Amino acid sequence: MKKIAVLGWELPPIFTGGLGIHTLNLYQRLAKFYDIDLYLPYFERVHINYPFNLKFIDFRGKFSYSYESSRDFYDIVRAYNEALVEKFDMNNVGLIHAHDWITFIAASRIKQKYHIPLVITFHSTEYDRSGNFYPQKRIIEIEQIGIDSADTIITVSNYTKCILLKNYKCAKDNIVTIYNGVELELFYVTNKDYNLKNQIIYFGRLTPQKGPKFFIEAAIKVLNQNEKVKFILAGRGEEMDKLKSIATEYLNKNIFFEGFVSLKRAKELYAKSDAFVLPAVSEPFGITVLEAMVAGTPIIASKNTGVAEALKNILISDFWDTDLIAEYIISLLKYKALRKQLGEQGKFEAMKFNWDRTALNTLEVYKRYL
Amino acid sequence: MKKIAVLGWELPPIFTGGLGIHTLNLYQRLAKFYDIDLYLPYFERVHINYPFNLKFIDFRGKFSYSYESSRDFYDIVRAYNEALVEKFDMNNVGLIHAHDWITFIAASRIKQKYHIPLVITFHSTEYDRSGNFYPQKRIIEIEQIGIDSADTIITVSNYTKCILLKNYKCAKDNIVTIYNGVELELFYVTNKDYNLKNQIIYFGRLTPQKGPKFFIEAAIKVLNQNEKVKFILAGRGEEMDKLKSIATEYLNKNIFFEGFVSLKRAKELYAKSDAFVLPAVSEPFGITVLEAMVAGTPIIASKNTGVAEALKNILISDFWDTDLIAEYIISLLKYKALRKQLGEQGKFEAMKFNWDRTALNTLEVYKRYL
Amino acid sequence: MKKIIFFFEVHQPRRIRPYRRYEIGKAHEYFWHDKNKEILSRIISKSYIPMTKFLIENNFPCSISISGILLEQLIELNSPILDLFKDYFKSGLGELVGETYYHSLASIWDDEEFSNQIKFQEETLIKIFGIKPVTFRNTELIYSDHISEVVKKLGYKNILAEGTDEVISKYNPNYKYTSVSNLNLFLRNYRLSDDISFRFSNTTWNEYPLFADKYAKWIHLTPGEVINLFMDYETFGEHQWKETGIFEFMKHLPKELRKYGIELSTINSFAESSGSKGQISIQKIISWADTERDLSAWLGNDLQKEAFEFMRSLKGNKNMHVWRSLQTSDHFYYMSTKHFSDQEVHEYFNPYKSPYLAFIYYTNILEDFQRTYC
Amino acid sequence: MKKIIFFFEVHQPRRIRPYRRYEIGKAHEYFWHDKNKEILSRIISKSYIPMTKFLIENNFPCSISISGILLEQLIELNSPILDLFKDYFKSGLGELVGETYYHSLASIWDDEEFSNQIKFQEETLIKIFGIKPVTFRNTELIYSDHISEVVKKLGYKNILAEGTDEVISKYNPNYKYTSVSNLNLFLRNYRLSDDISFRFSNTTWNEYPLFADKYAKWIHLTPGEVINLFMDYETFGEHQWKETGIFEFMKHLPKELRKYGIELSTINSFAESSGSKGQISIQKIISWADTERDLSAWLGNDLQKEAFEFMRSLKGNKNMHVWRSLQTSDHFYYMSTKHFSDQEVHEYFNPYKSPYLAFIYYTNILEDFQRTYC
């Protein structure tokens, strides 16, 4: 039986970013079908039993000092990729699956060397991450290398697929969209009550990409009409101070910055809010949308949010149209029926995004080569 | 690419029994992985597009008159199997998957003839169907032939697996349990209210196998203490008159026979009942349990109900222990918290039974041979 | 001698426009003139004109109701269809059927409001066609004993209702019955009606293609005295495109029926010539909508209920015509969130795509209406 | 000089038996004697006896609380463990800590009931051990300013609380503090406590295996004056089996600590010799239970709330001892339906396997109690 070599970056419980959650949920299912080697950067403390083989790539030797400290992220990625190529165990591998630009250099070189089919997944593109402000050319080049080398490209939404088609050289027929699942256990709220809570929530990093600025703009427009409402921004990020200066008039009176929140606190915030707003400038998928929906919370999301394309029971706006976002918020505050219907139908809709389906669809891609 | 030949019996919308629902949900997913020939008895009117190939076996020639009318079911099955063997299209088939005894004769003969790997699924055994009263020996023999010929046996629960191990000659290592999914769309109820409804429901055929008699016995025990409760038996079956005679004292006052109910009516009944009771004598899976749970209804099920082994948020009793069943009913009527907690947690638990998982697990079996 | 009756519902709402909150208190024009005109023009040219010409040219008798809210729009558009309708009714072949002017749900919550809207429709029909109807068809066949009482008091002789599964489990729909209010009651035969209006062009239907001879045979084999085929007028040319052969089918149908001695009729002429099979009481409200055949297409979810209550609360205002135009059932239909196949039907007809937007625009408008006219 | 304090909670409930509805009004014996005896005997021989012997043999100082409801059962069982405990406290190494006799949740709903249960426990401790405690540890470290006020009034000097994430985000738990009621307040160091009680034998833990030298070094590197290691007594021999090496670990720990000049202490002796780092106010109730560190382990769902309300409603009855024995927190813990890892913990301890059965048996019993004693 041929093996699958997965080039990864993170894995819960060590790092629980979106990519890590995807990696764990996908490969614990696929491990029943294939022998899987999962390559990861060296971590000091992983001693959990996974159903796949962990291959830790120690690339600290590439630096004269500890990699955690001073090198910039790009250099760390290069070092990781270099070490990956050197230490790659070719034995019996039938397919390589590489996740995001942080593994694409290695993926491309390994493919060149051994001529094994390559599948790559874009969980995001440099255009998303930069929020279209100064995308790094050197990273875009690496993404293009990945595209050029890949036999199949997986994107997490048609939205991301369109970004690839628009900004990179790549063929439409090579791209497959596969949606992520949502972790029900963490966010499911039984029987949310839809009484008015006068609270609206934003949850995400405070970076231009996610559009917290537009959340605050919409908040101010609502507050100019109704001072009873609380707007909560949960999450950290480099924009914090700038955002606070925009919110100034209402800061700590109606607009609150929660900073980092645990998953438990996130669930609590979802459950206690009348709406979750994600005015993302560019969001390849938007798992928080599904999480909030599973908690029964009505959603206002931007058109540039990948998962929105697959959802009916949400309200959609342009990210910059804070007039419209404010109007949606006011309607939600005003009409319980709107909160309830969106919340309940939305919960049901979101629950259909399960990781079994993601695994099935990924298997379908693998089947082309194995 | 090798094909999979599926020996089936029914398919929605023509027949929508449990086997038909299983066949449709499973193969519309697996059709993405394999070219699938689905063999079915000849039906006059199927003109729907499925993602797999339908192969209709017309076996009316085996009789001198129309098969629908007078021959007994066993003879029809024999004729279907005979015709199946004759008309089987061997070209490029890599695996045969046969469902229930009604296809096992053909499966065994085709395997003998072409030496193709054979997977069989038991959706029920003769012991279940007969409710342990006079199981037909000739059918058990056919089931044994299926077992003897199969490379892997799939059962829909460990409960059924145990029946096989106990009553047939078969090896434990050959058997894999794969649970069914539930069709969310049909039964999901948003925010059930758990106010007292004074209504308890049984939904299933009125046959000894499903234990409606024990439902009535428990009902009478409850009614002797509380005359406000309504007990509804939804479904038809040969036991109807006998059951009415047991219910006599309370008939049409507290105990009602609804006869045939549509899915829509079933959902309504689930939603408007304080509990769903299935005191099955032998139930390989028990999809109605999941359906009622998805509708948010508390469950009392017998130990001899396959799906019960995989559920935590239900109440379980011996089917004959109508004292205990009655006590559970009274507690449910008495304590809203019990209804609500069982209903809400149960809904969440049942929703995890999705057909994607069933398909993944079935793929895992196929993978052994293809 | 068996008869078949074709009854057609001719109706298009004044859809409201995507009305934003910032307009509240400022803009009082609620209706989506461009969209309504665009849709209506398409329907007129694809369906209303060819179908009405067909009726005239083929001397095809049938019963027809045309909502007032549609007539208004036809007049505004200055469309030739209005003259065609007049021609058809002048020919005496057709029967003009009454309803509520606004194609509303008034029947289920306010007898007075209901009666007023019926009377207004009568006046309109008299003004335009010179005809006072004697047959009544309520919005989407919404019906109950109580509704028939109100209609009876207004002087009608005949009324239509859906032959729901429950009704036809007790009564063969293919007869004339009597309502508890003592009107002649006609029950729609939904299977045979749907064969034409829904299934006609469905290539996966096992009876596809449906030709007039086969259909005539089915009618012949169906026991009863009168087969009531009630459907939207848009069936012809819009739901079933011309290319499906629907007009050819209709054209050949009368002569195929004649082979079995079956004739076409209108509701009232049948009613006058035929006896009642008995009385039927229908206490719970039924309709022809969705698979539920109840009110759930319009008042099935919380959005619909909250919007409906809000609208009702504005009774007694200074702009009754607009308020009543906001009562048209379609506005609530667009807010439906039903699952399954019905959802697709709802979506097909929903100009806002989303039931949530339908609700938001509608309540925005009511807020303005309340401020401006109450 | 840094100190570490081991505090152990020794408690087993009187579990109720699977009490059927048909027994209501007939059977008034509620407790599951066989099961309780079986579990307790196992724990005594696997944990209580070896651990207490260990403490005595190694002159190991620590603070211990033993619930009254457990002491009753030890007396009934006539177990040698009672004499071992007496020996240990006679040695003067150990400190006996007070609590509610019934290990109940009385502190959160009734100050008088709470005080009575504390006093009853004091009387019991005096009777059995001849010792009146000065340190108080509430059920599962349930704590708030208000609770500390009540405890202060009863004459206690020291009290324990959980060092929750919120508390330790503001205060280093490794000091003695003062409660708003002016008691000496000790905060559990949950990470270092859990290293022993939860993670010690976890082979997938990256620090596995944990040896005394490594642990002593961690303690050494931890800033502060006192490390409060609070845990169940059953940790030793029951949760962590003898075979895991837990006793060897404990045996070597004092001398490894001594290498860094760290000594073991009891709560009160530390309290008397050391100053306060400052006052801490904790207004919302906290506990050491589950990951939430609140009351949700016992009152987190509707089952628990309904059962608790029912129990409370029976105040003022003719069988206070049984009623109070039904207040033991464990009864509510068994009704928890939390997800995740906690669920497994709950299930492990749940003798009925199902929270629903725990609820049904409990309410059945209350129904009988109500009939019989109210």
Question: How is this fold's topology laid out?
Answer:
The complex is a heterotetramer, with two copies of chain A (370 residues) and two copies of chain C (374 residues).
Chain A (H helix, E strand, L loop, with lengths): L2 E5 L10 H13 L4 E7 L11 E5 L15 H15 L5 E7 L4 H11 L3 E5 L3 H4 L7 H13 L2 E4 L2 H10 L7 E3 L6 H4 L11 E5 L8 H12 L6 E5 L5 H8 L7 E5 L3 H9 L3 E4 L8 H8 L4 E4 L12 E3 L4 H13 L1 H15 L4 H12 L4
Parallel strand pairs in A: 1-2, 1-4, 2-3, 4-5, 5-6, 6-7, 8-9, 8-11, 9-10, 11-12, 12-13
Chain C lengths: L2 E8 L22 H25 L4 E5 L1 H10 L3 H10 L3 E4 L13 H19 L5 E2 L8 H9 L4 E5 L2 H6 L5 E4 L4 E5 L1 H8 L14 H10 L4 E7 L13 H14 L3 E3 L1 H7 L5 E2 L15 H4 L2 H11 L7 H6 L3 H5 L6 H10 L5 H19 L1
Parallel strand pairs in C: 1-2, 1-8, 1-9, 2-3, 4-5, 5-7, 6-10
Antiparallel strand pairs in C: 6-7
Helix pairs in contact in C: 1-3, 8-9, 12-16
How is this structure best summarized?
The complex is a heterotetramer, with two copies of chain A (370 residues) and two copies of chain C (374 residues). With 370 residues, chain A is an alpha/beta fold.
Keywords:
heterotetramer; A: 370 residues; alpha/beta; Rossmann fold; 2 domains; 7-stranded parallel sheet; 6-stranded parallel sheet; 14 helices; 13 strands; 40% helix; C: 374 residues; 7-stranded beta/alpha barrel; 5-stranded parallel sheet; 5-stranded mixed sheet; 10 strands; 46% helix; globular
